[in-house]
Amino acid sequence: MEDKKADKYDVLRRLALAGAGGEELHLTLQQSLQQAAEVVGLHGAAVYLWDDEMAITVAVTYAESDFSREKLDSLEKELFAELRKEKQLVSAYMSFGGERPLHTFTLPLRHGRKIFGAVIGIQEGAQKLVGEDIFLEALSAAIALNVIAGRVEQGKISGQEVIDKERLKAIIEVAVTVNHEVNNPLTAILGNVQLMLLKEENLDDKLRDKLKTIEISALKIKDVTQKLLRLSSARTIKYADDTNMIDLSGGEEE
Fold it and tell me: From its phi and psi, is residue 155 left (phi > 0), alpha (psi between -120 and 50) or beta?
């Protein structure tokens, strides 16, 4: 049992070193799948990477036989890909009966909240993959880091770009929340103020000026929430000595 644990550790160690050393991604994935298959008892495993439209851009497969290769391909195309598209599947462990019992899994490759690929595998016979979930999840995380490292190495993305994208996503999420929570009461305030201003003949100058100030301020708040939604970068500007604020000029239309 200790030898098997050491083998699992060695698979992850080699994968991490390959990513840190900038080794060729396709070869690294192929070797890692084969090593993981030997350790866990898989009859086949595959890594799929896709673009923002979920069209597969990279597919790397290891299989012991043509049957395993064909089964991996059909599981991805006919089951997992459809479930991701229709039901937003993220991960799963499944078992199928019959004359040739089959166990399978799919786990996501992710960076932050973005899922850009998956690892899938199959195992025939009485063994069950769910008992290997900790190793398989660590394997998928290590593969994801290798892919990210490879993209940084190739100049497709920089480390700063990754940080900026995650910051912008967080800002947009806050902006959506602010719009949802603020715009409803803000609409009520604006609506009531504007209704009152329609009856100017019943208002004295002092009250009318106050209502106008409220209307202008409410419209400014609405404009700020809209600018937050239109942000295209996570740039900040100096606000105070040790504090920055979001640069809303990034939300202006050019």
Answer: left
Domains in the chain: boundaries: 2-153, 159-251
- Site of tokens 């999420």: 173
What are the tens digits of pLDDT across the range 201-214?
778 888 888 999 99
Each residue's pLDDT tens digit, 63-110: 999 989 999 999 999 999 999 999 999 999 999 888 788 999 999 999
Lookup: tokens for 88: 């937003």
Residues 6+ apart with CB under 8 A from 131: none
Using DSSP's 3-state secondary structure scheme, residue 43 falls into: coil
CB of 132 closer than 8 Å to CB of 122: no
Handedness of CA 20, 22, 26, 32 (dihedral sign): negative
Domain 2-153 class?
Answer: alpha beta
Q: Going edge to edge, which strands form the sheet with 56-63? A: 56-63, 44-50, 114-124, 102-111, 92-96
Which pTM does this prediction carry?
0.59
Per the DSSP assignment, residues forming a β-bridge with 237 are 245
Tell whether the torsion through CA atoms of 138, 140, 146 and 148 is positive or negative: negative
